[in-house]
Amino acid sequence: MTDLLVVAAHPAETTYLPAGTDVVLTGIGMSRAATHTTRAIVERVPDARNRGRLTVVNLGSCGGLCPGAHGIFEPSLVINRDIDAELMRAMGSDPQESINLTEMGQPGDGSVLATGDSFVAGGPVRDALEQRADLVNMEGFAVAVACREMGVGLRMVKHVSDDAGEQALDWATRVDQSARALADWWENFRSGESPA
């Protein structure tokens, strides 16, 4: 039987999960997400030989980069948007800036999630990202790296809370809708139904 561990960045994203759900809150940003996810995996399954029985379920809100993006997404690919991958390759190093989530147990819906440490709220950064990805957040890539390196499965589920433009500045109010949608997804997932 597979053990499930919910990983989220902020407590507001997990408000409506049922009592008793195993939840780890990482805090905002990639360093914290990678560190707290790794620590949680080691604490729950100290013996690396048994880690195949654990699946991390990364729940969280995100910004939608495509016009009209809304609802739940289960990305197929997550990228590190903060690294200049072509420059690194030109210098002879492979930055491994993308992770195919379908290779880690994710059904995938074809969407691409771009992760980085800066908050995206419009402007040239958002415009450039829209050419590369469908969604944007600040932890997904780091959670995926931790899971890949530790040998555990991953389900990454994101709910669009805003348009990664001016709406993003109102995240604190908008996240409640994301938390409700993510809790609904979790309930369906736990009951064995196909989450919508």
Describe the structure.
The protein has helices spanning 30-44, 85-90, 123-130, 140-150, 171-190, and strands at residues 3-8, 23-25, 54-64, 71-73, 77-80, 98-100, 112-115, 135-137, 153-162. With 196 residues, the chain is of the alpha/beta class. Strands 1, 2, 3, 4, 5, 6, 7, 8 and 9 form a 9-stranded mixed beta sheet that branches. The protein is globular, with a radius of gyration of 16 Å. One of its GO terms (molecular function) is catalytic activity.
The pLDDT mean sits at 93
Count of individual domains: 1
Please give the share of residues in helix. 25-40%
Number of helices: 5
Number of strands: 9
Uncertain runs = none
CATH level 1 class label: Alpha Beta
Quaternary status of these chains? single chain
- End-to-end C-alpha gap: 23 Å
Q: Give the name of the CATH superfamily.
A: Nucleoside phosphorylase domain
Radius of gyration, in Å, reads 16 Å
- CATH topology annotation: Rossmann fold
CA-based shape: globular
- Percent strand equals 15-25%
Give the helix/strand class: alpha/beta
Give the helices and strands as they follow along the chain: EEHEEEHEEHEHEH
In short:
With 196 residues, this protein is α/β, with parallel strands linked by helices. It is built from five helices and nine strands; from the N terminus they run E-E-H-E-E-E-H-E-E-H-E-H-E-H.
Chain-wise SSE layout:
Layout: E1 3-8, E2 23-25, H1 30-44, E3 54-64, E4 71-73, E5 77-80, H2 85-90, E6 98-100, E7 112-115, H3 123-130, E8 135-137, H4 140-150, E9 153-162, H5 171-190
Parallel strand pairs: 1-2, 1-3, 3-9, 5-7, 7-8
Antiparallel strand pairs: 3-8, 4-9, 5-6
